[in-house]
Write a structure and sequence with these properties.
Layout lengths: L19 H8 L1 H4 L4 E2 L1 H4 L8 E6 L7 E2 L1 H8 L9 E5 H7 L16 E7 L8 H11 L2 H6 L1 H11 L4 E2 L4
Parallel strand pairs: 1-6, 4-5
Antiparallel strand pairs: 2-5, 3-4
Helix pairs in contact: 6-8
Length: about 170
Amino acid sequence: MIGPRLVKANRVVTADHPDLENVLRSELEDEFSHGPVDLKEVRNLVSSPRLQSLYLRSFTHPDLVEAGGTYLDKHTMLADAPQKTFAVSSDRWRSIVRHVVEVREFSPRDQSVMQVQLWPFDPRSLDDFAMVIAVALSYMPNELMEESRISLALGEMVGKWGYFTDTF
């Protein structure tokens, strides 16, 4: 008698997992055995860090970390939007929120506005690999479809770890 076919139970982790790169290598071992792996496979294994995005009157704070287009602008040829993007942990946000001004409408060229993404962990704790994965997964598929240059910039960043973004 042949028993039921077993299904591999993939685990889902956050980008701040202390051994993220090795977890992904292990979970995607079969895919890596055939060459570079499409980053879309990572979406099934790592949750998006972006809990919420807010547009705020620009301010500075030591807990803000470059994210989104601002991060890609610094590390690739992609030019950033006038509104810089930063990430902060939701825990730290609780102490910051009462000191900021949310913006509901603004001109596309308004540099006095910034985007802040709330993440479930402190983005300052991430190594280079984890930060690239977190930034990549912070983009929703519709955002990537609206601006294909983002996928190209992400592909430039993840290529050194054996990933590509053709269908990301």
